[in-house]
Backbone:
């Protein structure tokens, strides 16, 4: 066991792997820049030929077609790698090195593909102004704003890969999806979809995508736009990853909040941007992709199967609501009302879905707070989705309206996240364990738990034992046998590399008690044996779940988090700038696709949006 721990560094990769990974990145960059140089100097037309062939099928210019296809495929590869990587870390633990984990290759090449797609979008236009919102790079070279957004998002996500190793060297292994550098990867990859949506609109030259040529390529366009909005839903749903694996490290109220927020933004945007059936199509794309990835990671790779939200109930609610409200006149009102519906009716469907798919399903403990969080997330997401859709349709309200709505929605999201992260740990609760062996090699046991005081819990979200990182995962929701008394429903591994702990979540209380922990020389840490009759007190979960973390003095950890936060806010600001630039510089206003024939003109619509 100690020998195995020695081969799994807890503070960054071996220098040889760092050099090799750097070499791979430099080689890919040289190839990318070489293709750009050959294209810009007209020594090679390979990018134009590939883009033209792809563009024939989608009726967009080469500088839109090639980057869109490349970025889309790269995002799917990165998503597969990310979910596979999470599954591996839950089942096995730390890597022997970043290049020893096969999932890391998918993430690395996928994120580089996103960055490359943005670079190609910026480099491919020759002797033309790529769209009405194009930005002058140098004399004779204009770049589409969508290309800038994809490049920036891809670079931000890609930068998180090497910085992750630096982070581990400074602070140890933060075994959580919500580690700052992990959030860089997720946020950059997810927001690149916004850049792709802008890029496609630019490819139509500022002309309406539904007027005049409405019957030409209508089905192809619907599928393409639905896939893009479904991709946005995929990206926003990655933040819920720990809940999908039944190993959340945060309070349960965050899950309905994140699901409603993602549904509000992606599904409202899909309905307003695509038209009738857009929200349903986007949710269908999400379900197909996540279902396929679950089959690949689970039965295909033999790892832990990731679950996923349903979103179908929210999509139906959005579609029905769109039939009753005048979208063309008051889209912001529609976004807010749709957010409320998602946070209530859509939330109810997700409530039932968790009882079918999750061990840690939603219960009465979060009934009130969870619903309020879902409503807040749904409304904030719905408003953001509305701004995205009306921006893509060149109907963005004036800055005096759009900016306060954007800032208010972001403030609500930040407040809800903060609320979900606030948890307490009681200082007077302990548990006595009865450990009865079921098998000896490997050792598994039936475990009984007796809490002191017996009335320590009121209506808990979960009292469960999690055992992980021993080539698998066991999450067992304990059966209550009396006041303060619980019993496992299946044998729990307490041997070898397994880590087992009792986890308690009741209201704002989030705490744990270690049952069995192996020795780990790389941290270093001593073993904690699972003895019959032992009594131990509760501790913060992070002390066990993130056992490899190092304590950092002098505020370095806080400063590093603030830097990552500032960069993330800068990326969000860049996306807002890009959508606004496209919306305001493109000529005219595009009507909603399912608006009636007597729809008001652009000036009337602008007035109803509060732009006058």
Residues:
């Amino acid at each position: 066991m100690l020998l195995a721990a020695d081969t799994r560094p807890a503070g960054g990769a071996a220098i040889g792997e760092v050099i090799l990974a750097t070499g791979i990145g430099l080689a890919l960059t040289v190839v990318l820049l070489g293709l750009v140089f050959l294209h810009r100097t007209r020594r090679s037309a390979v990018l134009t030929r590939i883009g033209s062939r792809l563009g024939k099928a989608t009726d967009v210019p080469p500088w839109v077609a090639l980057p869109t296809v490349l970025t889309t495929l790269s995002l799917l590869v990165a998503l597969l790698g990310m979910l596979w990587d999470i599954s591996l870390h839950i089942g096995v633990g730390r890597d022997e090195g970043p290049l020893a984990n096969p999932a890391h290759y998918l993430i690395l090449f996928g994120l580089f593909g996103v960055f490359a797609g943005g670079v190609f979008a910026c480099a491919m236009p020759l002797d033309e102004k790529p769209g009405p919102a194009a930005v002058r790079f140098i004399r004779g070279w204009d770049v589409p704003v969508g290309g800038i957004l994809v490049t920036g998002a891809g670079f931000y996500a890609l930068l998180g890969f090497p910085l992750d190793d630096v982070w581990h060297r400074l602070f140890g292994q933060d075994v959580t999806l919500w580690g700052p550098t992990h959030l860089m990867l997720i946020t950059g990859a997810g927001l690149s979809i916004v850049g792709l949506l802008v890029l496609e609109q630019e490819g139509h030259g500022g002309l309406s995508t539904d007027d005049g040529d409405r019957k030409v390529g209508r089905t192809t366009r619907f599928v393409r736009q639905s896939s893009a909005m479904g991709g946005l839903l995929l990206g926003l749903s990655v933040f819920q990853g720990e809940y999908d694996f039944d190993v959340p490290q945060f309070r349960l109220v965050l899950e309905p909040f994140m699901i409603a927020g993602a549904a509000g933004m992606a599904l409202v945007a899909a309905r307003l941007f695509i038209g009738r059936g857009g929200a349903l199509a986007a949710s269908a794309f999400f379900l197909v992709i996540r279902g396929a990835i679950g089959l690949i990671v689970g039965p295909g790779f033999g790892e832990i199967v990731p679950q996923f939200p349903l979103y179908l109930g929210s999509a139906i609610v959005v579609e029905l609501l769109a039939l009753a409200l005048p979208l063309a006149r008051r889209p912001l009102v529609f976004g807010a009302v749709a957010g409320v519906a998602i946070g209530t009716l859509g939330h109810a469907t997700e409530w039932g879905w968790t009882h079918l798919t999750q061990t840690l399903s939603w219960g009465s403990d979060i009934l009130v707070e969870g619903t309020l969080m879902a409503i807040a997330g749904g409304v904030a997401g719905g408003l953001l989705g509305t701004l995205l859709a009306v921006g893509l349709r060149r109907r963005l309200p004036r800055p005096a309206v759009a900016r306060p709505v954007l800032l208010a929605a972001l403030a609500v999201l930040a407040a809800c996240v903060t609320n979900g992260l606030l948890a307490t740990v009681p200082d007077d609760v302990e548990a006595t364990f009865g450990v009865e062996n079921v098998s000896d090699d490997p050792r598994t046991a039936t475990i009984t738990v007796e809490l002191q005081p017996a009335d320590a819990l009121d209506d808990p979200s979960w009292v469960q034992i999690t055992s992980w990182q021993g080539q698998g995962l066991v999450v067992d929701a304990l059966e209550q046998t009396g006041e303060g008394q619980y019993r496992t429903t299946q044998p729990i591994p307490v041997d070898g590399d397994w880590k087992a702990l009792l986890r308690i979540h009741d209201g704002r209380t989030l705490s744990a008690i270690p049952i069995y922990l192996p020795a780990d020389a790389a941290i270093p840490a001593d073993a904690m044996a699972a003895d019959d009759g032992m009594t131990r007190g509760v501790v913060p979960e992070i002390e066990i779940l993130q056992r490899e973390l190092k304590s950092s003095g002098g505020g370095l950890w806080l400063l590093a988090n603030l830097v990552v936060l500032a960069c993330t806010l800068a990326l969000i600001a860049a996306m807002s700038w890009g959508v606004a630039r496209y919306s305001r510089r493109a000529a005219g206003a595009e009507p909603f696709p399912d608006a009636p024939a007597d729809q008001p003109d652009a000036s009337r619509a602008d007035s109803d949006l509060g732009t006058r």
Summary: The longest strand covers residues 430-440. The chain is about 55% helix and 10% strand.
